[in-house]
């Protein structure tokens, strides 16, 4: 895979006056790349009566992370933003679940599934931080 896993966002990266281009960060782009990785991974998997439903589930949950993040980005209120980010976070957990099931079912794809699981975990932690910070701000 040509995707480079990025580190989670830092406070310096949230600063609009930051002049360091290496610290530029775009969570929407990261979630789009993740959705593409999930799709590419799913295309490689052999389909049969057992794997077809698993592939459908991983595509649904893995691609909806970014869709829900995009919706949150356009939220009309703080409450709506938190609600939609929470849904994106839940989708990361579901994606991790399906990746574990696929790794068990198709052990030859376990290493790819682990890489995708790690990225889903990072996204989960990022969303958890966003939610926590939004709830603690007045």
Describe the structure.
- This protein has one domain (28-136): 23S rRNA-intervening sequence (de novo design (two linked rop proteins)), CATH 1.20.1440.
- Helix content is 72%, strand content 0%.
- The protein is built from five helices and no strands.
- Helix 2 packs antiparallel against helix 5, helix 3 (51-73) runs antiparallel to helix 4 (78-105) and helix 4 packs antiparallel against helix 5 (110-136).
Summed up, what is this model?
By secondary structure, the chain is mainly α. Helix content is 72%, strand content 0%. Helix 3 packs antiparallel against helix 4 and helix 4 packs antiparallel against helix 5.
What is the fold's blueprint, element by element?
Layout: H1 11-14, H2 27-44, H3 51-73, H4 78-105, H5 110-136
């Amino acid at each position: 895979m040509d995707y480079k896993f990025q580190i989670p966002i830092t406070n310096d990266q949230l600063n609009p006056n930051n002049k360091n281009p290496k610290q530029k960060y775009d969570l929407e782009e990261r979630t789009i790349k993740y959705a593409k990785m999930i799709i590419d991974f799913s295309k490689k998997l052999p389909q049969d009566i057992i794997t077809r439903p698993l592939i459908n589930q991983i595509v649904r949950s893995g691609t909806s992370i970014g869709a829900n993040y995009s919706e949150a980005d356009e939220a009309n209120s703080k409450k709506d933003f938190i609600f939609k980010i929470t849904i994106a976070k839940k989708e990361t957990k579901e994606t991790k679940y399906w990746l574990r099931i696929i790794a068990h079912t198709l052990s030859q794809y376990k290493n790819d599934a682990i890489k995708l699981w790690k990225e889903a975990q990072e996204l989960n932690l990022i969303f958890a931080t966003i939610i926590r910070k939004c709830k603690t701000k007045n």
